[in-house]
Amino acid sequence: MNIRLYHFFCLLIILLTLNSCGFQLRGYREGQTIPFHTLYLQSSSPYSNFNKALRQTLNSLGIDTRVSPPAPVTLQILSQNFNRTITSLGNAGQTTTYLLSYTVIFQLTDRQHHILLLPQHILVTRNFSITSNQLSGDLNTQNDLQEDMQRDAIQQLITRLSSPALYRKFCQMPSR
């Protein structure tokens, strides 16, 4: 009983220390507000995993994502690109390490097609090692990394949409 109580208090002290030093979970930012409540999400591949996840994230933040243009702002996903580059080879000349990169380019325009946010580049990279004896498991790992990279890109996009400069610019628009 005493050992459990000791472990409980140690855990409590660690949690209080993390909280007092300003530690926050990834993806959480108090006061992260996007200045608009409705947007049109425009993309050449509207049903991609990235766009579905982006739409879900925006909806969870209380933003109505329209499928047709009458909205105060348009978020244009100009391109999405996933690349896999060989970074090292094994003894028999087989690939052992890759650099995975995911790039998203987007811009934000208002109803009159004035650019509110110039084209922005988001680049997310991960290193990926592969072994010949676990090829199928490594391919699943690559898919998991790709999904994680997309989530990271979405979080970076949301952070840019909630920038104070964009908030001021949006509030100064005459016809919101």
Automatic annotation (TrEMBL):
Positions in coiled-coil regions: none
Function, in words: Together with LptD, is involved in the assembly of lipopolysaccharide (LPS) at the surface of the outer membrane. Required for the proper assembly of LptD. Binds LPS and may serve as the LPS recognition site at the outer membrane.
Species this chain originates from: Candidatus Rickettsiella viridis
Name assigned to this protein: LPS-assembly lipoprotein LptE
Domain of life: Bacteria
An MF annotation (GO) of this entry: lipopolysaccharide binding
Pfam family, one: LptE
GO cellular component annotations of the record: cell outer membrane; transporter complex
UniProt keyword annotations, A-Z: Cell outer membrane, Lipoprotein, Membrane, Palmitate, Signal
Oligomer and partners: Component of the lipopolysaccharide transport and assembly complex. Interacts with LptD.
The family this protein is said to belong to: Belongs to the LptE lipoprotein family.
Record GO biological process: Gram-negative-bacterium-type cell outer membrane assembly; lipopolysaccharide transport
Record has Oxidoreductase as a keyword: no
Gene name as annotated: rlpB
